[in-house]
Amino acid sequence: MPVVEDVMVLGADAPLRSVTRDENLLLSPPHPPKVPLKLWRDHPLLSVVHFPQEYRAQPFAPPRGVYENDEIRVEWQTMDNRQPFYHRNCDVDEISYQIAGERTLMTELGVIEHRPGEFSRIPRGVAHDNYGRAESHLLFYLPAPVAELAPPDRESGPVFPPFPGWQPGAVNEAVTQCMGTPGHDITVFGADEQRLLEQVHAEDERMTVLRADPGLATTWLYGTDRIRLGVVTTAPGGRRRYRRTLDADEIQYQARGTRTLITQRGVVDLGPGDFVRIPLGISHASVASEPGEYLSLLSHRELPQIGETSRTAEPCSAALLDSLDAEVRA
User: Fold this and answer.
1) Highest taxon of the source (predicted)?
2) Which of 61, 78, 90, 162 is the most exposed place for a label (fewest CB within 10 A)?
């Protein structure tokens, strides 16, 4: 079946060009070479990392790393308690996405009450702590400074007490480099929480809360010249359209709904809580049987997986494509 592939580059709204393809050839192994030389490599099928969105009671633990290079780190975290210290990054802006539950984010720039589907960015050098209630969230450590690309939903502000039952007291503050990875603290020392939170009165800057626009196919929320972070909405029906990004790895996190991801590195069904990495230059498309959305992180540099693989994609076949077409028609 003929399909269209958009050839994209990072940060561009329109494709460099759009190419008509034979879908079976696009997803099939290469023809045997006509010369007795090994001209290309065998590549592994895509791998999926999964963390459940439903809260499961457990003691506080550091966030779990999912993808990381020397300038970006993606983490998953779950909490039903306070973080045991205030944290100050030396090298990165820290962006969070609320998956489930409720979380109070307390900072020197004010307090935010996070609900599912919301993003916020903590600028480099701002001390912060969290109080989570049966919640989970994602963290994106990106090289500072990061710009907001969408209008704010609301902003942080002075809130005292920051949550019911809060009492000021002695806390620790940890200053870290290397995207806050364990073991990269520079110094840890005692601090006065009341004074930390009252710093908001001396600051003109506030943090903003962002949400994706449900009326847009893609909402880009944050960016630098080498990185984009946003939300893509998916809907059932319509013809498949492939995309090949020439200069960026893409990390996708399935936030809501289910879909089938079709790529030149295999086919895999994705549901809420699934992460997948699509290397640069790989053509891919999605087939959805219900409305949904996923987070998309584009990185100009390779962004390897460091989390444990939950499952892998399966090779594509004409029969599999036919079954997806039958589901769409149904």
Assistant:
1) Bacteria
2) 61
State the Cα angle at 105 between 277 and 216, rounded to 5°.
Answer: 50
DSSP calls for 101-120: EEEEEEETTEEEEE-TT-EE
Q: Which long-range contacts (CB under 8 A, 24 or more apart) does 83-86 make?
A: 83/129, 83/130, 83/131, 84/60, 84/172, 85/129, 85/171, 85/172, 85/173, 85/174, 85/188, 86/127, 86/128, 86/129, 86/171, 86/172, 86/173, 86/174, 86/191, 86/193, 86/196
**From residue 262, how far is each of 114, 121, 144, 160, 320 by CA, in Å?**
33, 32, 34, 50, 10
Contact present, 27 and 316 (Cβ < 8 Å): yes
- Please check whether residue 162 is in contact with residue 197, taking contact to mean a CB–CB distance below 8 angstroms: yes
Q: What is the pTM of this model?
A: 0.95
Q: Tens digit of pLDDT for each residue in 264-312? A: 999 999 999 999 999 999 999 999 989 999 999 999 999 999 999 999 9
* CA dist., res. 303 & res. 278, Å (int): 10
